[in-house]
Amino acid sequence: MTLPKNERGLGANEKIILEKFVRYINKVYGVARYAHQLRDNKSRRSIKTAVVAYLLLFAFALEVSSFNKMTVLLEYNKKRFHNLFPKGTRLPKIDALRETVKSMWLEDVLAMYDGIIDKAIENKVLRENTINGLRVAAVDGVELFSSKVKCCEDCLTREVKGEDEYFHKAVVCMTVGCDPHIALGVEMLGPKNDGSDKDEGEMTGVKRLLTNLHQKHYHFADVIVADALYMNAPFLNLVTGIGMDAVVRAKDERLNIVQDALGLFKGREPDHEFHDTKKQVWAWDEAHFHMNGYGGNIRFLKFVETWVTPKGKEMRREAWCITTLGKNISAHTVWLIMRKRWHIENNGFRMLKTYFHADHNYVHGKGANEKILLFILMAFNLMELFLFRRLKDFREKKIPRYLIKEMILWELDTHNMAEHFACFDTG
Ligand SMILES: [Zn+2]
């Protein structure tokens, strides 16, 4: 096979980025093979379902983040996406795309999702992504969109200024540490039903999420980090129950454990001092606290950070957290875990929030939102894996993500990638 002459001087023998990407996600992660295995509500595999799944993954990976934008790409710039499929494949119009998402089987989309995660684990992605040797994953809630009009039986309900508002919400578990960040799993929160008078809360969702992830992938993390909403005994019991440790941000000064710890630390010299990324950090650290309903010892840490801004202003910040990690893990490591959780909120989770908030026009209906969310997260995972595992110099060269995505989209205009999709065609 002769490779097209590289127009942007990446080196004459270097494959174009598009081909690297398509090859990588199919050869390593079997994306096209999974797409061909998806069944629809007529309980058959159809080429249309495979095309839609493959198309969605590319669109989301390249940050075609709204259905409006996708309509434009599908209807006015046909050649681009046609180059992913064998000659003669009919690409769906936006309505057909929506209907196909609704009719594909959720369990098959989940199997595809979990298969990609399993492969990443097999390829030691998680083992190599640690904070001082600990594999850390964060859990957090993500609200998908809201509307004044009830759209489906899965909608959650809340009152805003005396009016009912409907929305969907999910809890996501994502690795925290260094790149690549991987969204390990997601659970949608359920609406109230006959047996309950309240919609499911985040805590219930996280319990299902971590239990399922533990069943599927066993010891997928050493530490689960969460924000102050999870500072309670059931969460600590849940995490330690699956053989992991918890680091949870503490914020509420009214809690006994917070008052006890701050009282104890008052007037006492810090136990540790360290420097990290231009910050000077002092830590107070005590391991013998208790919480009603949790049998183990709880370690409480208070951090005071100071730093100087580029303009010379002196800054100071205080933060607290609790953890089930023993004192063999340094205060510096616990501080890093807490800080990286915040980092993920500003990157991974924000991506999800902006995708959904930007567009109220997504597919809506029982199970449909979950399938779209799964495709978005799969696309996110595949792109992260590609950037940091396949394009090995991506990090060193500090190439912006958007530039890689633009190059792939641009190359899709002129390069046919059909063979990678077609070889699994069950026809
Ligand atoms: Zn709904």
End-to-end Cα distance, whole Å, is 25 Å
Share of β-strand residues: 15-25%
Number of helices: 16
- Overall residue-averaged pLDDT value: 87
Q: Report the sheet with the most strands, covering strand number, pairing sense and barrel closure.
A: 10 strands, mixed
Radius of gyration: 24 Å
Structural class: alpha+beta
How do the SSEs run, as a string of H and E?
HHHHHHHEEEEHEHEHEEEEHHHHHH
Uncertain segments: 1-13
Oligomer kind: single chain
Helix content: 40-55%
Bound molecules: zinc ion
Global outline:
globular
Total count of strands? 10
Structural notes for this entry:
Strands 1, 2, 3, 4, 5, 6, 7, 8, 9 and 10 form a ten-stranded mixed sheet that branches. Strand 5 (223-226), helix 9 and strand 6 (245-250) form a beta-alpha-beta unit. The chain is globular, with a radius of gyration of 24 Å. The longest helix is centred in the C-terminal third of the chain and has 23 residues, at 368-390. The protein is built from 16 helices and ten strands. By secondary structure, the chain is α+β, with helices and mostly antiparallel strands. 42% of the residues lie in helices and 21% in strands. It has helices at residues 17-27, 31-37, 47-61, 67-76, 78-82, 94-103, 106-122, 202-217, 233-241, 256-265, 331-346, 348-357, 368-390, 394-397, 401-412, 418-422; strands at residues 136-147, 156-160, 163-176, 183-188, 223-226, 245-250, 272-276, 279-291, 294-308, 314-323. Residues 151-152, 154-155, 168, 364 line the site of zinc ion. Zinc ion binds at residues 151-152, 154-155, 168, 364.
